[in-house]
């Protein structure tokens, strides 16, 4: 089937569409409205890859004993794997114009799909909250530089000082303003934000090269890992890097549904994901190398670096860049998927704008200022949830490419009766495979003797989820989508 002939139902609801499975935001994007080019896809990824967590990721790898060059090797391998996973998982979104929360009904059934949707939504809202708090710290640094009286706003409330509450309010308001303009305006924002953050990163890199008279001491640091220990930690590093984006590998159809062609989504993701990551990572290492020369120790937190430099103009411009970088990743990687997930839960009550505002409210209730003090336990919990989403990726790939043979009867995805209904709305092969994959991928967190699985948890989850789904689908046959029938019903 060629892309131009891909089936897409009339976006207007019909009497046969279940009202709890359909609204305008969940409907397939018609071909004439799929207007994102490869440039849009690339700039969206540029804006997402450049965030504070990704900037600091190299420090975690070097803390494990890797050299700077080995860090780049890990980043290259991890992002190449991510690119391949997202390339294949994005195809259904590009072909049919449907979001993740609708596509997943094919394997899990309309009711069973809510389980992976809720898990993905939880991760998205949590990461929105954490990233926003990091940006609020940058706002605090800016206001402290511009107004000496800002630091006096220290009245505590619910474990946080008044000035940080005000900084958070500013960040939340900026997120709300951007998200309220809809998906296509978000695309235009990323068209500016992604390249601008790259430009500022290049300026910081030039500064680092000047201070370090070259790549700097961190690039001269040798590797402390050899033999089996090296390969074990290499696998752990790759899995950790993938873990930052494993949730987005699941809901990449939320973006690819707006792309005009398969070629555009592939080229855009190739430029925006692995290529940009390989450019951005050495930027962070070079800039941090300069801090070793200036301060005698590495400063990986960019907000701390701005404060340590003590130049008002640098603090204000650098802080504004960090805020822009956070907005660019949060709006697309966290608010958008979480909003779609909430709309999927309550399509009769929520549209995209209302759901995005609800994400902002729920993000406050996650109280990120308290989570920062318990980082170790929180990241373990997120690793566990991320491991559970690995099997979802495997199930989606197995279902679309092997069971469905890349053909979907799209209208049936919005009905309780039909080929995707499963058993009373529950897709037992998908649910069984999810349970099996999640159990195996998470076993290392439960049984100390299997702790080695944690280094490859995402890979194990994908493999077990896909294998179990195919096995269960054969034992309890999943109705295949006949091409001719699907075309005639679309």
Automatic annotation (TrEMBL):
Q: Which UniProt keywords apply?
A: Membrane, Transmembrane, Transmembrane helix
Similarity comment: family membership: Belongs to the purine-cytosine permease (2.A.39) family.
The organism is Nguyenibacter vanlangensis
Domain of life assignment: Bacteria
Give the taxonomic lineage as stored in the record.
Answer: Bacteria, Pseudomonadati, Pseudomonadota, Alphaproteobacteria, Acetobacterales
Q: Which PANTHER family match?
A: NCS1 FAMILY PURINE/PYRIMIDINE TRANSPORTER, PURINE-URACIL PERMEASE NCS1
Q: Which Pfam families match?
A: Transp_cyt_pur
Transmembrane segment boundaries: 67-90, 102-128, 162-179, 191-210, 230-250, 271-296, 316-343, 355-372, 384-404, 425-447, 453-472
Write down what this protein is called: NCS1 family nucleobase:cation symporter-1
């Amino acid at each position: 089937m060629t892309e131009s002939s891909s089936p897409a139902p009339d976006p207007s609801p019909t009497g046969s569409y279940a009202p709890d499975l359909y609204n305008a935001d969940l409907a397939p994007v018609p071909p004439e409205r799929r207007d994102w080019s490869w440039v849009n896809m690339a700039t969206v990824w540029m804006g997402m890859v450049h965030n504070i967590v990704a900037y600091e990721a190299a420090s975690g790898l070097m803390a494990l004993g890797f050299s700077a060059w080995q860090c780049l090797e890990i980043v290259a391998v991890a992002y190449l794997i991510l690119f391949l996973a997202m390339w294949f998982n994005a195809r259904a979104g590009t072909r049919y114009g449907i979001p993740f929360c609708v596509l997943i009904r094919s394997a899990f059934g309309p009711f069973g799909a809510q389980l992976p949707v809720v898990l993905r939504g939880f991760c998205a809202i949590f990461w929105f909250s954490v990233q926003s708090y990091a940006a609020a710290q940058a706002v605090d640094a800016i206001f402290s530089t511009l107004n000496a009286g800002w630091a006096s706003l220290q009245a505590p409330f619910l474990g946080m000082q008044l000035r940080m509450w005000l900084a958070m309010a500013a960040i939340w308001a900026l997120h709300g303003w951007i998200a309220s303009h809809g998906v296509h305006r978000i695309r235009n924002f990323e068209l500016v934000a992604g390249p601008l953050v790259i430009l500022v990163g290049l300026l910081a890199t030039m500064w680092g090269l000047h201070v370090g008279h070259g790549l700097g001491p961190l690039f001269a640091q040798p590797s402390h890992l050899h033999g089996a220990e090296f390969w074990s930690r290499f696998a752990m590093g790759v899995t950790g890097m993938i873990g930052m984006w494993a949730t987005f590998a699941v809901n990449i159809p939320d973006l690819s549904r707006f792309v005009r062609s398969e070629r555009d989504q592939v080229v855009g993701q190739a430029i925006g994901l692995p290529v940009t990551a390989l450019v951005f990572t050495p930027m962070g290492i070079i800039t941090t190398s300069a801090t070793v020369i200036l301060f005698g120790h590495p400063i990986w937190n960019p907000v701390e670096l701005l404060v340590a430099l003590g130049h008002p103009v640098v603090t204000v411009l650098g802080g504004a860049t960090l805020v822009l970088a956070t907005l660019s990743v949060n709006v697309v990687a966290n608010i958008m998927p979480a909003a779609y997930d909430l709309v999927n839960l309550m399509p009769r009550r929520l549209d995209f704008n209302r759901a995005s505002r609800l994400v902002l409210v729920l993000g406050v209730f996650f109280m990120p200022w308290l989570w920062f003090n318990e980082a170790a336990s929180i990241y373990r919990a997120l690793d566990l949830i991320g491991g559970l989403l690995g099997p979802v990726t495997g199930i989606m790939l197995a279902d679309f490419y092997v069971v469905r043979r890349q053909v979907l009867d799209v209208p049936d995805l919005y009905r309780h009766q039909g080929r995707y209904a499963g058993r009373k709305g529950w897709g037992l092969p998908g649910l069984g495979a999810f349970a099996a994959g999640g159990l195996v991928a998470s076993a290392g967190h439960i049984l100390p003797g299997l702790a080695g699985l944690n280094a490859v948890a995402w890979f194990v989850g994908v493999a077990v989820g896909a294998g179990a789904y195919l096995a269960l689908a054969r034992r309890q046959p999943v109705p295949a989508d006949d091409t001719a029938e699907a075309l005639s019903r679309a």
